[in-house]
């Protein structure tokens, strides 16, 4: 709701600075021809840089929704949003061609948004991030260790938050190591999780969800570091 209010305030501020009355603003002439264009070129942005297509689209749609509402309530002259049809391709594994063309209705003037691809940070960036976590005064050693645990094992945030003193046995001689013949740095310790795990809930213990038990492999050096942190 706050984001919606911020977008609406942005549009009303623009109207005020451009001496435009929201009661007479036109879709093509003003919303697309000026408001959208100024955001696209960077004229109407905080740092004078072009905004992303997605940001512009949601701002224009918020303004259009508001003006349509005003028109419906007879607070302004009629307001219309032109529509066009655009072809899209839908993946369909049951179709011999693997996809089906389809036409959908879209707001005229809507910008095509660039698809974003998920990328992973470089190793150097991860190392620098961990150093910043460990450097935090007071909680650094705990926060850094939790972050490394998530990175190394892939456990979920809730599972990490529910890690207990007895999750990892305090006596290393009782750890179950899957590859005991490997060098120490390459060994992995089997750890069983049951608190905060994903799936059916079997009750609560000290406020933590009791879920299905599952095993993870923790690198031996990290297990030692964790034990040292918890038991000393």
TrEMBL record:
Example GO biological process term?
DNA integration
Q: Which InterPro entries match?
A: CB, DNA_brk_join_enz, Integrase_recombinase_N
Give all residue intervals belonging to the Core-binding (CB) domain: 1-71
Database matches in SUPFAM superfamilies = DNA breaking-rejoining enzymes
GO function terms (MF aspect):
DNA binding
Which keywords does the record carry? DNA integration, DNA-binding
The protein depicted here goes by the name Core-binding (CB) domain-containing protein
